[in-house]
Amino acid sequence: MSSSKSRTVESVPLLNGNNYEPPSSRRQKRAERTTEFYERRLTPSIPPGLERNQQKDQRQRAGRPPPQYDDTTVAAQRRRFRPYFIVTVTLVEIAVFIYEIVGGGIAPISFTPTTEELVSVPVFGQNYNESVKRSVISNWFIGPNPTFLVHNAAKYSLCMRKDTALMTRLARLRVEENYLRCCRLNDGSQTCGMVLQEDCESFATPGTVLGGASQCDESSGLCDGGVTLRPCCVGLSASCVLTSHENCSFQNGYWHTNAVQYLSCFDQTACY
Questions:
Q1: What is the pLDDT of residues 92-111, one digit of tens each?
Q2: Cα(247)–Cα(265) distance, rounded to whole angstroms?
């Protein structure tokens, strides 16, 4: 009984003996073994032959000075490229910009259209003058007049596709053309103009209808005082009015010197 107890006591290590290892030391060793294990797995192994070649290269470079390069050598070996395309496109854009500024001028700088007034324009068939106004399209981007840009191939929807409202208005003008007459004033001036027949008879001094609009020709000898009222095409929306050459020029329109149809106004003012 006493012998078994003595063996049990001897098998238990003493707290102050040589076999005792503190817990902190065991944790540190376990962490070191874990770190070493993952380092071996993550570090790529170099084949023996490759390792010998690297060591040989290092021994050969040990006694050799590093190569020297200067800017002249690097510049001589580098291929040179010149931006011909970019330079060409830039020069073309500058040339177009100068042409638009010189040809179209600088439009009024505003967010809304501006109005200019021309005083004292004689009214055909009446004994008085009137003041006329025109609306000037502004360009708040500080550039040419939008009308000039459209005339030089800028995008404009009416020139790119058929517009229903425009086609309807042109059809109405086509009907009105059939009622235009050449009217000669009977006030002694022998001046002619293209008007509707009822308008010719309602002037202050009733005029004489000479026939269709084609009769308003100075070479016919019927209009000794000249033809002062003709169709004038104004604006980008193909507006056509019967007015004098002075008013048409003020409106920056196209004044027809011959009797032509209204339908040609759109091609002459917007998409020519």
A1: 999 988 988 888 888 888 88
A2: 16
